[in-house]
Amino acid sequence: MTPDRPRRIQRGRRSAAGRWAGLGIALLTALAAAGCGSGTAGSLPSPVPTSRVDLPRSYVFSPAHIVVPAGTTVTWTNDDVFTHSVLLNGQAGLGQVIHPGESTTITFRQPGTYHYVCAFHPQNMAGWVTVVPAG
User: Fold this and answer.
1) H/E segment holding residue 106
2) Are strands 72-78 and 52-55 parallel, antiparallel or unpaired?
3) What is the pLDDT of residues 55-99, one digit of tens each?
4) Which fold has domain 16-132?
5) I need a surface site. Which of 16, 47, 80, 110 has the fewest CB within 10 A?
6) Number of CB atoms found within 10 A of residue 34's CB
7) pTM of the prediction?
8) Helices vs strands, H then E, count in the chain
9) What values do phi and psi take at 120, rounded to 5?
């Protein structure tokens, strides 16, 4: 499972409030399902409905676990004084390198949970993006 590259195709647009309301319902459903089963989903940090992840001066992704509807572009911003990266599980190399003060984006089109790390600091910096169906 790999996210698609950003596309510039515009389809019917819903209001931001409508997208986030739908996301809230999907998040509640996902949390209820995670509480009923076993496995790693229950051990992840609680997901935060946002499309922005900060890299503060503390070797962490904040928030560490986000939830977004399919088709969302997630932005990571490096507010640290060190270079970091976003390396999706299964990706080779360093992933998307982010120098201090820079940002990078990835668009997630397929539902699922994507694990990522900083290739330079994988022992400290890990995160997850849970993508739920749009709507």
Assistant:
1) strand 103-108
2) parallel
3) 999 999 999 999 999 999 999 999 999 999 999 999 999 999 999
4) Immunoglobulin-like (2.60.40)
5) 16
6) 19
7) 0.70
8) 1, 9
9) -85, -25
